[in-house]
Amino acid sequence: MRASPWYGSLARDTQQALLEGCWIVQLKSGEYLFRRGDRRNGFYGVNNGRLKASTLRENGKEAILAIIEAGNWFGQMSMISGAPHAHDVVALENATVLAARPQAFETLMNDAAFAKAIAQLQSIHTSWLYRIIDDSAAYSTRARIARRLVLLASGDMSMAGAREEIALSQEMLAMMLDITRQTLAIELKAMVAKGAISLHYGRIQILSREALLKLREDD
């Protein structure tokens, strides 16, 4: 958790107050942290493991919005607005989540520095959301896939750092992009041919960011 850029930006006493206001939630793979429509009950930080945020479309298909990795904090909008959760969050693997109690969160929000940090966190999440919307509207399928791979390699919604390997199945990536598994396979094969990526079971390795960035520009 201390490796989280957002958490690390907090003052030491604020970090301690946040942790003291949390309870620990242990999730098994496939277990829900909360479902769409559930009332707010915490401001969450992923200590280990990975979660996914998703929703069901009218046709019953699942749309994966984000992969929430260790170090990510989320749930601030429901805590501030009091509105129910807008999507489902479920564990992709066994995970440990810290959940700040509403009362503790509200007390911390009385501190101007913490309130500013929450505003910055919301700005990060909003920028991420606008980027996803922009990609869907303005780019070709191949460019959308390439751009999402770059985003995932940067920590997806946290944009916290870079890695060369993305632990994600092709099925899940297709659900994130709202394309068929067959279409994704064709486009990934083209990226392999360009020397941009290599494919492995349950993961995608970025071999050349330059080649991938070039694909991002091809429309």
Automatic annotation (TrEMBL):
It comes from Paraburkholderia hiiakae. This is Cyclic nucleotide-binding domain-containing protein. It comes from the Bacteria. Keywords: DNA-binding, Transcription, Transcription regulation. The lineage of its organism: Bacteria, Pseudomonadati, Pseudomonadota, Betaproteobacteria, Burkholderiales. SMART domains: cNMP. Residues 6-109 form the Cyclic nucleotide-binding domain. InterPro entries: cNMP-bd_dom, cNMP-bd_dom_sf, Env_Response_Regulators, HTH_CRP, RmlC-like_jellyroll, WH_DNA-bd_sf.
